[in-house]
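INTERNAL AUDIT FORM
Audit reference: QA-55
Scope: verify that the stored structure record matches its stored sequence.
Auditor: D.O.
Record contents follow.
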Amino acid sequence: MADAADSKSAVGNYMWVQVPPTALILKFLGLWCNWQHKRPQPVWCGFKSYGACIGDYIMGMRRLFIIRKDLNLSSGKLAAMVGHCAEAYWTNFINKYTIKCVDNTLPCIDLSLFRKNVRRLQPYKRSDLYELSKKAFDEGKDYFLYDKDENGIFVESNTPKYRYVIDTEINNEIYEGYINNSFVKTICEAKNLNHLLKVVDKATELKLYEDRDYGFINDKCLTELTPENEDGTCTVGIWFRPLDDDIAHELSKKYQLYKG
């Protein structure tokens, strides 16, 4: 007979195990977490909240760069090309969503409205801006440019001053898993151009798109390299945006790590 304090007991040919209630709850939460994410999790979330579990899920992200080995790049040139790979995604992202604005302009409005909508016309309470707007409005202009002199007085200007505003959102996984985390990078080598281009087929299969999820580094051949493309450049490598580890591994599994 099994002792009453034991967690196991034998009945016939079967072994019965008494599982503590806490373990059952933890097991259920782990299954729930996997169901929510539609995939096995890298860590067992246990009693963590769903939000915390999401944080665990997006931990594994990395940048993947593949550089041609047959070009025999010097150490300095290789460092420059890897730097281009690292910057290319972010500069593409910024350029795509940047709006160019004129920073030193105000609309010309009918100043007879001044007393009717004081809040809207607040800037024109300054006498210098009031006079600039009145002059431009009387000349039939829609807006006027202004600048400040050495005394801090607003004066008319003919030169626009620009500022650049980025109007977009950053993907939650990229921010939490890469920007606000470790900048993990993997640099692989391709034997030649044809070998490099094979990763594009895999990227297409994974529904990754050029100029959004990946892009090529084409050197202008000012030093070391010889032009290979019609535009006088040489394709040196390819960069990928921050990707989940499993996707990065799927892309790089037919490439070796870059060796000096």
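Auditor finding: record pair retrieved intact. The longest strand covers residues 61-68.
Action required: none
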